[in-house]
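lol forgot to send this yesterday, sorry. C-alpha cells for the thing we talked abt
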C-alpha cells in the first residue's frame, strides 16, 4: 500500500510504501528530490530526467519528497551531482551522524514520521532556498516561457542555467518540460480527453504531448493514465 500526506516542512510530502503493495511502479520525473528510508538504509534520490523503475526484493519504504529547488539547501549537496542517481546518505553526510539517524529511525514506531522530523531539523539549520526559486517554479508551472521569466528575474540565460543546475539538477527548460508533463498527466488522469489535455497543458498538439511523455517516461500516455483511456 502506498500512502502520502502533506509534510510539516513547507511544500514537502511524506510518503510510505508497505509490503501490502506488491506492484512495482515507475517513479516519474517531477523536479523533486527525496530523503529515503528502506529497511534500515538511508538514501537520497536525486532529480530524475527519466522514469526510474525500482528493483530488488519487495521491501518497505518511507520518504520525504522535497518540493522542487528546496532539497539542496537541506541535504547540503548541489542537485546536479545527484541527477538520475540513488545514493547512500553516508556518502553525503558524516558516517557517525548517519549511524545515529539510522538507529533513531529503527527505534521509531513510524519511520516516515521520524524521517520527517529529521528533515525539519536539517531545514531549520540550513540557509533558506534562494527566494527566486519558488517564483521560477510557479511561473514555469503556469507555462511561462523560460526567456521571459529569466528577464523578469534579471538573470542572463547562463546565470539562470547555473543556478537551476544547483537547485533542480538540470536547466530551466528541462524543468519546464517536466512540469508541463506532470500537469498533462494530472489532467488526463482526471478524465480530460487527450487532445484537450495537450492544449491545456501547453503542447502544440496531441502528438507533441505523446512524444514528450514517451521520451521522459519510456511509456505511452495511455499506459500511464490507465485502461479505458
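and heres what i got for the seq, position by position
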Amino acid at each position: 500500500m502506498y500512502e502520502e500526506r502533506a509534510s510539516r516542512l513547507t511544500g514537502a510530502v511524506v510518503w510510505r510504501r508497505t509490503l501490502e503493495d506488491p506492484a512495482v511502479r515507475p517513479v516519474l520525473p517531477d523536479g523533486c528530490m527525496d530523503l529515503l528510508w528502506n529497511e534500515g538504509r538511508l538514501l537520497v534520490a536525486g532529480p530524475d530526467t527519466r522514469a526510474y523503475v525500482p528493483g530488488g526484493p519487495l521491501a518497505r519504504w518511507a520518504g520525504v519528497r522535497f518540493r522542487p529547488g528546496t532539497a539542496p539547501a537541506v541535504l547540503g549537496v548541489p542537485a546536479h551531482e545527484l541527477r538520475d542517481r540513488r545514493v547512500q546518505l553516508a556518502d553525503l553526510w558524516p558516517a557517525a551522524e548517519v549511524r545515529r539517524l539510522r538507529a533513531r529511525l529503527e527505534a521509531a514506531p513510524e519511520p516516515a514520521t521520524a524521517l520527517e522530523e529529521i528533515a525539519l531539523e536539517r531545514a531549520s539549520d540550513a540557509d533558506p532556498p534562494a527566494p527566486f526559486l519558488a517564483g521560477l517554479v510557479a511561473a514555469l508551472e503556469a507555462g511561462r516561457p523560460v526567456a521571459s521569466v529569466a528577464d523578469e528575474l534579471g538573470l542572463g540565460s547562463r546565470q539562470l542555467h547555473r543556478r537551476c543546475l544547483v537547485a533542480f539538477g538540470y536547466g530551466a527548460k528541462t524543468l519546464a518540460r517536466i512540469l508541463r508533463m506532470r500537469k498533462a498527466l494530472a489532467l488526463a488522469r482526471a478524465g480530460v480527453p487527450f487532445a484537450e489535455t495537450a492544449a491545456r497543458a501547453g503542447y502544440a498538439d496531441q502528438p507533441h504531448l505523446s512524444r514528450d511523455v514517451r521520451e521522459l517516461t519510456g511509456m505511452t500516455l495511455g499506459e500511464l493514465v490507465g485502461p479505458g483511456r
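The beta strands are 2-6, 13-17, 33-38, 41-45, 61-66, 86-88. anyway ping me if u want another try
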